[in-house]
Amino acid sequence: MFDSLTEKLEATFKKLRGLGTLTEDNIKEALKEIRRALLEADVNYKVTKDFIQDVQAEAVGAETIRSVEPGQLIVKIVHEKMIKLLGEKTAEIQISERPPSIIMICGLQGSGKTTLTAKLGLLYKKKKQKVLLVAADPYRPAAVKQLQTLGKQIDVEVFEMGQSDPVTICKGAISKARKEFVDLIIFDTAGRLHIDEELMNELSDIKKMANPREILLVADAMTGQDAVNVAREFHEKLNVTGVVLSKMDGDARGGAALSIRGVTGCPLKLVGIGEKLTDLEPFHPDRMASRILGMGDIVSFVEKAQEMVDFKEAEKLEKKLRKSQFTLEDFLNQLQQLKKMGPLESIMEMIPGMGKALKGATIDPKAMKRVEAMVLSMTPYERQNPKIINGSRRKRIAAGSGTTIQDLNRMLKQFAQMKKMIKSMGKMNFKGLPKDMMPF
Questions:
Q1: Domain 3-86: CATH class, spelled out
Q2: 430 near 321, Cβ under 8 Å?
């Protein structure tokens, strides 16, 4: 996400770093480049204009500190103003003190409402909340079926009443929730291909009846300015309490993320970063600003690692590495833990400097799957003792994993090189391996 915008902003800052002093003229020249980059990223024109004026007012009047380079000073000011634009503080989902708390999900058709409903259900299930998902879109049978399928995947109950009126469905869900001591109800409401009076009246009726604690609008980040226009209209009609940006892992230029709060005043609360039901993050303005400016997001990276990595297993692995006992079984476990953290590109972008270092490099998720398939096609004994894998075993493993014997030979050779390198590291701390030594 934001690749193009980040690249252009970094190029502008690089020019500034080469300057000896900051003058009003070179500040204006740099801000022209920043303005152009923001507009090309589909940021709202008025938001861009106000942002540039804010940066210029502070940059021109800023005192130059000898120890701070001109480029660093501008980056600092742009970073601070971008955090302000995005909302300054993290806006959390509000839950009622007295259950059941109600969250109403709304948005246009295809924006990702049903998937978000399931993602939120899983998020609060992990927090030990009893959750009820409500299929409040009776017009699209596929929506009900989709929510039921997702509900089974996360083991959360889905309430539905077929083709009944949406208000009646929501009323029935609230009644059931009170009887069964449900903590959180999430309404997956109907959408349209465009905003119309019928849709808004229906959503207003649900709001009046249920009095939800949160009304979350799902805005498709890939639609750019359209997402901003949709957010503005929904907010005017429903007084939306928060916006969720979906599909941020796609080809999103960043305009929606930078414009929505500036245009509507409505806080961004969550970001959908992938198709998996775990791919949902709180929206942190400071961290998002750092990502946009190419500074990485090490805090989110550490949080994700703490959530996904089994540290007891990590300690066992460290001992094995020190004793040169690393096996294909261990390697498989590490691959599977890495996969839990999300797309590799997203993980790398969080590490300061890593996104730039890997610029242009392609990380093929299929290659990881092939390696995993090869290791899974081996017997436990073969994983522990890869030296026993002879010709007939190689043929069987390649056939079982849908790969070729050449693929398997290459992977085993790279694994042997990796083991050799680990052994040569001796008592050094194991920090990771060069890209050319990894078998994917």
A1: mainly alpha
A2: yes
Nearest in space to 160 (alpha carbons), one of 127, 131, 137, 129: 137
The reply to whether the predicted model has a pTM over 0.85 is no
Superfamily of the domain at 302-437 = Signal recognition particle, SRP54 subunit, M-domain (1.10.260.30)
Q: In tens digits, what is the pLDDT along the chain, a chain of 440 residues?
A: 566 777 787 777 777 766 666 677 878 888 888 888 888 888 888 889 998 988 888 877 665 544 456 667 778 888 888 888 888 888 899 998 889 999 999 998 888 899 999 999 999 999 999 999 999 998 887 889 999 999 999 999 999 998 899 999 999 999 999 999 999 999 999 988 788 888 899 999 999 999 999 999 998 877 777 788 888 889 988 999 999 988 776 655 667 778 888 888 889 999 888 888 988 888 888 888 877 776 654 444 445 555 555 556 556 655 655 555 677 877 777 776 666 665 555 555 555 544 554 454 455 567 778 888 998 999 988 888 888 999 999 999 999 989 999 989 988 888 887 777 666 655 444 344 444 444 44
CATH 1.10.260.30 location in the chain: 302-437
Q: Buried b / exposed e across 185-216, counting CB within 10 Å, b at 16+?
A: bbbbbbbeeeeeeebbebbeebbeebebbbbb
| Contact residues for 352 (Cβ-Cβ < 8 A; gap 6+) | 295, 296, 298
Where do you find CATH 1.20.120.140 in the chain? 3-86
Name the CATH superfamily for 101-295: P-loop containing nucleotide triphosphate hydrolases (3.40.50.300)
